[in-house]
Write a structure and sequence with these properties.
By secondary structure, the protein is mainly β. The chain contains four helices and 17 strands. A hairpin with a 2-residue loop joins strand 5 and strand 6 (75-79).
Length: 299
């Protein structure tokens, strides 16, 4: 029987005398195969279940869980937490090519990959972490990346430019993501929007809309331009806003510009993050790594 929304899950029972402790998801499957009473103490399934009461304790929570029957070229296997699939090309690791996560649990390590993942709802959450079609040609015709690349020759045309580009591996409190143009961070206080409090722009492209935020930004130089504005008065911010369309806002004593290949931030107060212009969301941590030559586009 599977659990539905709002249903009670599991029951409290006396702690069995002979209890096998599973410190990983692989241990869970192995011990279940041996018909043992399994105490789940580590791994992604354990993190999904939440923190148990402190030891020592006389009772435990007995929980039914779903399992995944997996069939591959190697044969049949059983999984309790997840099955993750990526490209066989080693360069770029999990961030090159299509990545699919079939989630019975909610987490993969520190990543909250499937926020709705539940190990006893009778289904798995299938998450496409990076959708990439290596057999299809992607023509970039709009957006900040396209504007950075410049105006292409007029249509119709018989030839196009094939361009390698870098991608950005992004980790936030919400989990992993990939960006091609930029990651923008601002104060979580809604009043004033991007013009109140500290602002960080991690730029793989040069532009954000009509603003030339990173005049030296290039999507295939193996680095990002990190533009940070902290101590700016309202008068300074207005002057910067007037100059942004022309890229003349820098140099400025209140704006730091640094080329970087990887960077991590921990915010004492929550910030709001927007990835490639998508809807912003709150986070207290941000990590970005440049993935050189991670994709190829047409322009």
């Amino acid at each position: 029987m599977t659990v539905g929304p709002g249903d009670d899950w599991g029951r409290t029972v006396a702690r069995p005398a002979h209890l096998q402790v599973a410190s990983s998801d692989a241990d869970v499957v192995r011990l279940l195969h041996d018909d043992a009473s399994v105490l789940v103490a580590g791994g992604d399934l354990a993190r999904t279940l939440g923190k148990p009461p402190p030891e020592p304790r006389d009772t435990v929570l007995e929980l039914p869980i779903d399992l995944l029957e997996v069939t591959t070229d190697r044969g049949m296997a059983i999984a309790c937490a997840h099955v993750v699939v990526r490209s066989s090309w080693s360069r770029g690791g999990w961030w090159h090519g299509p990545v699919i996560a079939v989630m019975n649990a909610q987490f993969v390590g520190e990543w909250d990959v499937a926020p709705r993942g539940h190990p006893n709802d009778g289904r798995a959450e299938v998450v496409r972490m990076l959708q990439d079609h290596p057999t299809e040609s992607v023509m970039v015709t709009g957006g900040d990346l396209a504007r950075t690349l410049g105006t292409p020759p007029p249509e119709p045309r018989q030839t196009v430019r094939e361009l390698p580009i870098d991608l950005l591996e992004v980790a936030t409190d919400r989990g992993p993501a990939v960006a091609c143009a930029h990651v923008l961070v601002r104060s979580s206080w809604p009043r004033g929007g991007w013009w109140h409090g500290p602002v960080i722009a991690v730029m793989n492209a040069e532009f954000v809309g009509d603003w030339d935020v990173a005049p030296r930004g290039h999507p295939n130089d193996g680095r990002v331009e990190v533009v940070e504005a902290n101590e700016l008065s309202w008068r300074d911010r207005l002057a910067v806003r007037r100059r942004l369309p022309h890229g003349t806002h820098v140099p400025h004593p209140g704006i730091a510009v640094r080329p970087m290949r990887a960077a991590t931030w921990e915010f004492s107060r929550g910030r709001v993050v927007s990835i490639d212009g998508a809807a912003p969301f709150p986070t207290r941590s941000l990590s970005i790594t440049v993935l050189p030559d991670a994709a190829t586009i047409l322009h």
